[in-house]
Amino acid sequence: MAEKIRERGPLCAGIDPHPGLLDAWGLERTPAGLEKFALSAVEVLAAEVAVVKPQSAFFEAHGAAGIAVLERVVTEARLAGALVLLDVKRGDIGSTMGAYTAAYLDGHSALAADAVTVSPYLGFGSLAPAVTAAREQGRGVFVLARTSNPEAAGLQNALLPNGKTVAQSIVDEVAALNAGAEPLGDVGVVVGATVAPGELDLSALNGPVLAPGFGAQGATVSDLRALFGADLRGVLPASSRDLLRRGPDPAALRAGVREVRALIGQSLDEPGVTQQREAFP
Ligand SMILES: O=c1ccn([C@@H]2O[C@H](COP(=O)(O)O)[C@@H](O)[C@H]2O)c(=O)[nH]1
C-alpha cells in the first residue's frame, strides 16, 4: 500500500452508492442503477487514486445482485491499478471471524480485497483469523479504533481500569502487532479525520492510518495536520460523498479527485512534512 500511495498520492476514494447519489446521477435505485453508478465511479477513481474503498453496505442493500456488482467493483478497480480496501467493518467470535476472513481475505473468494476494515469490539483477540490470513496473503486489515462519527466518543473514549481509553488500547494492540515491521506493519487503524487532536497517541503504531471523515463529514486538510501533526507518514485520508457528488460527468469527477488530491499533497509538501513523507515506505 505504501508503494501505491507514493506512486499516486495519499487519497482513498470511497465508493458509496447512496440512494441520493443514484438520484443525483440520474440513475434508478435498482441493481442496474447501482451497477452503472459503481462501475462509472470505478472507471474514473481507480485510474487516479492509490486506494478505492467500496462501502459494502450500499451494495448489500441491493441483495444478491448488489453483491455481484461489488464483486465486479473489486475486480475492475484492481485491474485499473488501484488497491481495494473493502469497508465491511466485520467483527465476531473467532470461529465466525474465520468465515468472514474466507469471504474477504482469501484469494479464492470473488470478494477478496487488498484490505478490509474490521471491528475489535468483540475483543481484539477475536480478530486473529483475519490478521493471520492477511499477513499470510500479503493483504491488510484496518482496525476501528476511534471512528469519525459523533456517537463514537462515549464508548471509544471510555477509560479502562489501566487508565487508557478504549481507542488507545486498540491502537496499542495494533502497535504490538506491528512492532519491528519494516518499513510499516500490515495492520492499520481507523481514526476519523474529525477526531479532536490529542485524543490518541499514534507514535508507536508503526502502521497505516485510514482517516475517513474528510470532506462530507467536515474534516479539512488543516484538521489532518492538527490531528496527525507533522508526521503524516502512513496516513490515508478518505472521502466518499464529497468526491462522488462531482459526477456523473467523468471529466468533472476526475477534476474533483485531482483537486482534492492536490490539496492534500500540498499540505504534505509544507515545510517540516516533506521529510516525513520521503520516509514513507
Ligand atoms: O470512522 C469511520 C469509519 C468508516 N467510515 C466510512 O467512510 C465513508 C465516509 O463517507 P463520506 O461520504 O466521506 O462521509 C463511509 O463509507 C463510512 O461508512 C467513516 O465515515 N468513519
TrEMBL record:
EC id: 4.1.1.23
Alphabetized InterPro entries for the sequence: Aldolase_TIM (IPR013785), OMPdecase_AS (IPR018089), OMPdecase_type-2 (IPR011995), OMPdeCOase_dom (IPR001754), RibuloseP-bd_barrel (IPR011060)
Q: In which pathway does it act?
A: Pyrimidine metabolism; UMP biosynthesis via de novo pathway; UMP from orotate: step 2/2
Q: Which organism is it from?
A: Amycolatopsis sacchari
Q: Name one GO biological process term.
A: 'de novo' UMP biosynthetic process
Family annotation (SMART domains): OMPdecase
Q: Which family is it part of?
A: Belongs to the OMP decarboxylase family. Type 2 subfamily.
Which Gene3D superfamilies does this UniProt record tie to the protein? Aldolase class I
What is the protein named?
A: Orotidine 5'-phosphate decarboxylase
- CDD domains linked to this entry: OMP_decarboxylase_like
The enzyme's first-digit EC class, named in words, is: lyase
Q: Which domain of life is it from?
A: Bacteria
Query: Which controlled-vocabulary keywords does the entry list?
Result: Decarboxylase, Lyase, Pyrimidine biosynthesis
Its UniProt entry gives the catalysed reaction(s) as: orotidine 5'-phosphate + H(+) = UMP + CO2
* Presence of keyword Membrane: no
Q: Where is the Orotidine 5'-phosphate decarboxylase domain?
A: 10-256
